[in-house]
TrEMBL record, chains A, B:
Renumbered residue ranges of the record's region RNA binding: 252-258, 276-280
Subunit structure: Homodimer. Within each dimer, one monomer is responsible for RNA recognition and catalysis, while the other monomer binds to the replacement base PreQ1.
Catalytic activity, reaction form: 7-aminomethyl-7-carbaguanine + guanosine(34) in tRNA = 7-aminomethyl-7-carbaguanosine(34) in tRNA + guanine
Keyword Glycosyltransferase carried by entry: yes
Organism field: Sporocytophaga myxococcoides
Top-level class of the enzyme under EC nomenclature: transferase
Annotated family: Belongs to the queuine tRNA-ribosyltransferase family.
UniProt-annotated catalytic positions: D92 (proton acceptor), D271 (nucleophile)
Pathway linked to the protein: tRNA modification; tRNA-queuosine biosynthesis
Protein name, as recorded: Queuine tRNA-ribosyltransferase
Protein's gene: tgt
Single GO molecular function: tRNA-guanosine(34) queuine transglycosylase activity
Stretches assigned to the tRNA-guanine(15) transglycosylase-like domain: 12-370
């Protein structure tokens, strides 16, 4: 993996760049649509490629490990061959799902024991086997196994957890560096900064993580319920320590405004379920603002869903039709809403890159944040 | 509406033709994908046009009347403007849904009173208001309000019901002929033959229906649980009476084999939820046979879903991936399965037309029915 910074903004820490992987190039800043079980829910791979123009998607180790399982993924020749997505893929480490989805889990120094949400069967994730699992899944970028602390979190717990995450990182790196990719293309490992919302812990964690000198770095444990200001503060502190010349990935973030503000702090990569999950519930992001399509006011609004966005949707569908579909719980409602939201998110990243290159990012950001976060 | 017969098969009653509507031409024999609430479940209009090559789709009066409702459809300028489908549309009369979906309904000479499955509100359908409703929905082909008898059905009930359907047809025609289309394009009304599985009733009904001299005729009350042989027998009897020079529509039918056998009896139009509904449950129709994709045997089968069908699906997806999606209840599973099934059904109709034109339909049918109904 090669990261090259192309241009930088003078009034902020924003930058554009490219990440070269064996499955192609990623232009940063970038948003990665979440494809939990090897599918971005309700979106065809063809649409991801040609309509949404996604450059990289995310998969969840926890879900893929349980279903279809490592035997199938291995026989397929890895996740790209399995799901037909030939551009880059990133997998998380499974840690977040284990904590948030699994009813009964035990976190110990060795690793985490948890019960499958599908059949209740018991499994253990350790830093070592999570590396092995991600080798078998075969994403281009894989994540270290960490503990994601909740918000709010006691200082003492946050510190102890962070220290364990650091020890786990050492074990992840040892395992990763002593194993080979399985399918003939390269994989790279990103470590994750933790430390909850405590400045000193975030600083200490960022320094520790940077010292591992991996090809890219991630920030975890944010966007878990804390106020946006605290998230930005922590992100800023961490970005001041993480090496400038390597990509920075802010995990699980966020709203369109969160993305633009975090780009200004020096973040290059994002993922979040918001554009996909909220789409299925009728929350539509547009270039003109946010629409709750279930609202009565859209019932007879036959205008196109987003006049500002080039998309095939405008050739077929109106707000009123989308409202009807979502109100009727029709699958096509989820399809259209998700396609709109992801097209918007990727368009926003493209706009941000252009503005950074043109040297007008900061002014554009302030105007745009206001507009796109307006409730219509 | 203009129907022209293009070619006929020498060894059967099969024929090819064209139906000209104000929304374009339909080549017959044709299968009409079911778009209950103004959407073919899990399929984009773009896919219907360009991938599936659907020439006409069906909508359900009962569902569209309840949601989005006539005010929205009227303000939109009719169903085509509302759902973005600019090719022909056919609506059923709502009768079938009222009988099968509605818990509490009362059938009287005047009409049917029923409770909405959405909110329990009370409504009445009469032959007259069902014509008005279908004028407002605005489909190109609309259906007479009839009673669809269950199977099995007592002779006495079947006869009385059939006679009421005939009286209702008179009322439908009177109302239809004394009203105008609302959106500047033509609409045509098809009456429906009933008579359950009784030869004399079917003959009598077909004669009565033919006497109304409408532009096309339909056969209802079949494919409701009776053996296929009886369905074919009834279809054959009715086709011997219904005028040769007008399109014949066999409602709610059926399996790929049912379609080919009924084409041989002189049927031109079909609709059925089978390719769409069963897709969502993992039943996949292919040129090689029928697949239950949930079956363990497909778990590591990385071959394409249907090697015999030209489709964009083959560029992305395997049987194993589709199995994973359906097993995981992922929306994309429904999307792929439905797209495959409808592409197959429309391909099959296209093949049938070609074989009829080439004069090889009957031989081809016998071989094909065997192949495509094989359980893989």
């Amino acid at each position: 993996m090669v990261f090259k910074i192309q241009s930088t903004d003078k009034k902020s820490k924003a930058r554009t760049g490219t990440i070269q992987t064996d499955h192609g190039e990623i232009k940063t800043p970038i948003f990665m649509p979440v494809g939990t079980a090897g599918t971005v829910k309700s979106i065809h791979q063809r649409e991801l490629e040609s309509d949404i123009n996604a450059q990289i998607i995310l998969g969840n180790t926890y879900h893929l490990y349980l279903r279809p399982g490592l035997d199938v993924l291995s026989q397929a020749g890895g996740i790209h061959k399995f799901n037909g997505w030939n551009r880059p893929i990133l997998t998380d480490s499974g840690g977040y799902q284990v904590y948030s989805l699994s009813g009964t889990r035990k976190i110990k120094e060795e690793g985490v024991t948890f019960a499958s949400h599908i059949d209740g069967s018991k499994h253990t994730f350790t830093p070592e086997n999570v590396m092995d699992i991600q080798r078998t899944i075969g994403a281009d970028i894989i994540m270290a196994f960490d503990e994601c602390t909740p918000y709010p979190c006691e200082y003492k717990y946050a510190r102890k957890s962070m220290e364990m995450t650091h020890r786990w990182l050492k074990r992840c790196c040892d395992r990763f560096d002593s194993t080979e990719p399985k399918y003939g293309y390269g994989q790279t490992l990103f470590p994750i900064v933790q430390g909850s919302c405590f400045k000193d812990l975030r600083l200490a964690s960022a320094e520790k993580i940077a010292s591992f000198n991996r090809e890219g770095n991630a920030i975890g444990g944010l966007s878990v319920g804390e106020p946006a200001e605290i998230m930005y503060e922590m992100t800023e502190i961490v970005c001041s320590v993480l090496p400038w010349e390597k990509p920075r990935y802010l995990m699980g973030v966020g709203t369109p405004a969160n993305l633009l503000e975090s780009i200004a702090l020096g973040i290059d990569m994002f993922d979040c379920v918001m554009p996909t999950r909220n789409a299925r519930n009728g929350m539509i992001f547009t270039t003109e603002g946010i629409i709750n399509i279930k609202n009565e006011k859209w019932k007879s609004d036959f205008s196109e869903i987003d006049p500002g966005l080039p998309s095939f949707l405008k050739n077929y569908y109106s707000k009123a039709y989308l409202r009807h579909l979502v109100a009727s719980k029709e699958i096509l409602g989820a399809q259209i809403a998700t396609l709109q939201n992801l097209t918007f998110y990727l368009w926003l990243m493209n706009e941000a890159r252009t503005k950074i290159e043109e040297g007008t990012f900061s002014e554009w950001k302030d105007l745009t944040v206001k507009k796109i976060m307006t409730r219509l």
